[in-house]
Amino acid sequence: MSYAEKFRAHARQYGVSDDAITRILWHVQPAVGIEGIYDDPGPDDRVVGYAGGLPRMPVDVPWEWGTQFVACLDLAAIPKQPLDDWVTREGHLLLFSASDYWQADDDPLSVVYVPPGAEMVERANPAVFRGDGVEEAVEPFDLLSRKTLILTEPAEWDVLGETWVEEEPAEGETPGDLVPDWQLDPLLVAALEEYRSRVPHPASPGRHESDLKLRGAELNPHGWDTDQGDVLAALREEAVPLVREAPERFEELHLQALTAAIGNGYVPDFCHMEHTEPWLCLAEVAAGAFWRQAEGTLAWMVSYADLRAGRLDRIHSAYHE
């Protein structure tokens, strides 16, 4: 049973309509929120990894100069959520960035997946550059400050739509407040309200701010503009009656819509290759939580096909203002 089928069966138990379920699945993504703390964790804190300092890495994987260690996630300590079926909850995930985090980076060390039981050692800060068959002594990069990573409660769902727009005021009223663009979609808002009103202890959908997020579903485009979101919403409404009659078609129609919204030949800003399928945001950090006076978001991106295949060795980092 796919993640969409599991979620539909779960929501149906509480009387959520099929149309509302389709709209939610189309736009909502699970995001496990994680915070970094300098102090010792409290008795009720759930530790899920660490950030900064020196990483523990597999004995056969080098830490090359030019990359900076950001965080290590203990996947077994991070709970799964509804919709979240794609990322394993075994082993560890080491996140790296370019030494200058704002530079697009497609280095193969953007992510290192460590399977359970693998032998690991603490690496020294690289001070040797290797390239073109030569080695050169270089200054090591400054390490990020060491933090303990703890789980944020409650579990989070992010709604696709990062663009903040001015809410249309009623006639004769003053200009509206700035709101996320998804809040201007009355059909999506109604679907979320229906779900929240019927399902006990639902995760709270919205754009949540955490130091670090781990995502596991396939709907995680990063840095979309409003036009792409409008295309996706229009294709959603075309799919709603089709899925009502044939729920098993949801994933097929959803992938078609993601591909159409992004457009064939779409070139992500973090990769010099041309792709004809969606790239998804597996994890992201608020740069200011790890680099002093930094802005923007650092994300780790994976193609749809690689995520489905569990290819965590083919992840690229990307910076988004």
Task: Write a brief structural summary.
Helices cover 22% and strands 28% of the residues. The protein is α+β, with helices and mostly antiparallel strands and 321 residues long. The longest helix is centred in the C-terminal third of the chain and has 20 residues.
Strand content: 25-35%
Instruction: Let me know the largest β-sheet.
Output: 12 strands, mixed
Give the low-pLDDT segments.
Answer: 264-274
Span between termini: 37 Å
Number of helices: 6
Number of strands: 18
Average the pLDDT over all residues and give the rounded result. Answer: 79
Category from helices, strands and their pairing: alpha+beta
* Radius of gyration computed on alpha carbons: 21 Å
What fraction, in percent, of the residue positions are helical? 10-25%
Can you put this structure into words, describing what you see?
With 321 residues, this protein is of the alpha+beta class. Helix content is 22%, strand content 28%. It contains six helices and 18 strands. It has helices at 3-12, 18-27, 186-198, 226-245, 250-262, 304-308; strands at residues 28-37, 47-51, 56-58, 67-74, 92-98, 111-114, 120-122, 128-131, 134-137, 147-151, 156-159, 164-166, 178-180, 204-205, 212-215, 279-286, 297-303, 316-320. Strands 1, 2, 4, 5, 6, 10, 11, 14, 15, 16, 17 and 18 form a twelve-stranded mixed beta sheet that branches. Helix 4 runs antiparallel to helix 5 (250-262). The radius of gyration is 21 Å and the shape is elongated. The chain starts with a helix and ends with a strand.
